[in-house]
Amino acid sequence: MLLKLPEKEACLSCGACCAFFRVSFYWAEGIEIPENMIEQVTPIYSCMKGTNQQQPKCIALQGIVGEQVSCGIYEVRSSSCKEVQVADEQCNKARMAYNLIPFISIETEIPMNDEEYEQVI
To answer: Mind listing the pLDDT tens digit for each residue in 12-21?
Structure first.
């Protein structure tokens, strides 16, 4: 399988997660979100309109998935949106559903200085 390194602004050319998952959250998180963008799921949980259907697409998603996208409520988005990170399992699951190449996650560790050696900068 092909894998791709995520570029700096990877989410702005993707948006697959916003058009693949139901974006549900505790009702109180929606206080700052415009009321016309929220749908009640249960007395305790709400979701973003457009995401509670067979082919989800968040009402706040602007643009074309896989090309250029943005979130109309980015500053007040829910915790469920914030949880999806570039190259994580959820991200790649959504990308594959849109026939986008999954990202490879490369974790870079900050080297620890061994106390027996001087640090070279």
So the answer is: 999 999 999 9
CA angle in degrees (0–180, nearest 5) for 56-46-28: 140
Q: Kindly state the tokens that stand for 51.
A: 């995401």
Enter the tokens of residue 81.
């949106």
The single-letter code of the amino acid at 63 is: G
**CB neighbourhood size of 2 (10 A):** 6
Contacts of 35 (CB under 8 A, 6+ apart): none
Q: Can you read off the two tokens belonging to residue 115?
A: 């106390």
Prediction pTM value: 0.82
The span from the CA of 42 to the CA of 95, in Å, is 28
